[in-house]
Structures are given as structure tokens and as C-alpha cells.
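dumping these here so i dont lose them again. two proteins, back to back, each one seq then C-alpha cells. dont judge the mess
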Amino acid sequence: MLELRPNCECYDKDLPPESTEANICTFECTFCTSCVEGVLNNRCPNCAGNFVRRPIRPIAALKNNPASIKRVLTNQGCES
């Protein structure tokens, strides 16, 4: 099951479970669309994989399977 991490790993922007701006790689590294398209060129700085839009978990499913509250920030940052 996806963690649904709560933030963009570049600049700590909030990405709640219902966000349409959340993008993930195969390891669930999580970045906002602005960083993915404008800074990262669709390549994860952690694993070099590509990104896909993170699916939205229905509210009813969040009750028994909540999103993660652990914030993750990449060590490398998102410098172009």
C-alpha cells in the first residue's frame, strides 16, 4: 500500500492525500508537479527513476488506511 507521503521532498510543500500535484517514483519518493517538471526534468534525484502522478485514496479508505505523517526531505535538494 502506498504511504502517501505528506510533502514534496524538495521544498517541503504540503501534499495532502487528495492533492493532484503529488508525483511519485517507483520507490515512492514524492515531489510536487512544479519540481518534477521545472527542476527535476521528470527524473528522481534519489533513484534516477521517472515520476507518475500519485493516485488519490478515497476518503473512506483513509479512515482505515491513513496517509503517512512522516515528512521526508531529499539530501541533495532540488537544484537545477
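---- next one ----
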Amino acid sequence: MSQIVAVVTMDKEKVGGGAPIFIVNDAEQQQKVSFSLEKILDATAHDLKNGTMILVRHT
């Protein structure tokens, strides 16, 4: 079972739901925030290639 634990996006209009959403200004900031959260949350970052990355905890 997998769970989305966070979303990092450059376009807040494209996302919603129950996971925490982090809004960033550019791709560089998105990478930094995603990789930091990846370590903190013990999750894996997945790039959706549309300006949004999801962090998923695989159990």
C-alpha cells in the first residue's frame, strides 16, 4: 500500500486534497523542497512532469 504524504507544485490551481501542499516559485526550489521532504518524511519523490511532484511513502 502506498500513501501520498505531500505535494510540491508550481501551480496551486492544479492540486488539492488531503496531503500537505507546498507551493514553490520555480523548478530549482521545487527540487530542493522535494528532496528535503523526501528525507524528512522517509518518502520517495515522483515528478509528474507538469510542475508538480508528489512524495509517496511505500509500505
